[in-house]
Amino acid sequence: MEATEDLYRPLPTRESDRDWDLFSPFWEATRNGKLVVQECTVTKKKVWPPRFLSPYSPGAELIWVPIEGKGEIYTYNVVYRGFSPYFQTQVPFAMVVVELEGGVRMLGNAVGVDPSVVHCGMEMEVSFEKVNDDITLVNWKPSERS
Predict the structure, then answer these.
(1) Among 30, 48, 82, 123, which lies 20 to 30 A Cα-Cα from 64?
(2) Going by C-beta distance under 8 Å and a sequence separation of 6 or more, which residues neighbour residue 145?
(3) CA angle 43, 48, 49 (to 5 degrees)
């Protein structure tokens, strides 16, 4: 089998993702090792995933704000079967939803941990993975604060 780097890895691109412009401040921040989400200017509630309009206050502006990249696993799934050649080389791995401040829940892969020990409530922190000049993915690793 080919080396993992040679396999096609499904990623969002400017050409394939209709929401690329909406997410562009997020991708810019991740390239710089920062995590950002939107915030409603009226209610100050955090919004993720990004939207054009605030779900909390009709007509309110949404601004991008930094958020601490630490939280707890809200839910997870251990993947044992890869449906694309790239993921066939990665299994098993855990996909986690981490709950951050303000109730924001963000999806990503768990890294640096055996998938069999991943559990709800586990403290995690962001781990950035630079894939190319446009994409730096958000992954999650066990928190060192434990």
Answers:
(1) 123
(2) 70, 123, 125
(3) 135
- Which residues on neighbouring strands pair with residue 39, listed in sequence order? 46, 63
| Start-end of H helices in 9-95 | 20-31, 85-88
49: phi then psi, degrees, rounded to nearest 5: -70, 170
The tally of domains found in the chain comes to: 1
pTM of the predicted model as reported, rounded to 2 decimal places: 0.86
To the nearest 10°, report the CA torsion of 82, 117, 146, 100. 40
Rounded to an integer, what distance in angstroms lies between the CA atom of residue 100 and that of residue 73?
Answer: 9
Range of the domain at 97: 4-142
Rounded Cα gap, residues 112 and 35, in angstroms: 19
At 36-77, the pLDDT tens digits run 999 999 999 999 999 999 999 988 999 999 999 999 999 999
Supply the Cα-derived Rg of the chain in whole angstroms. Answer: 16
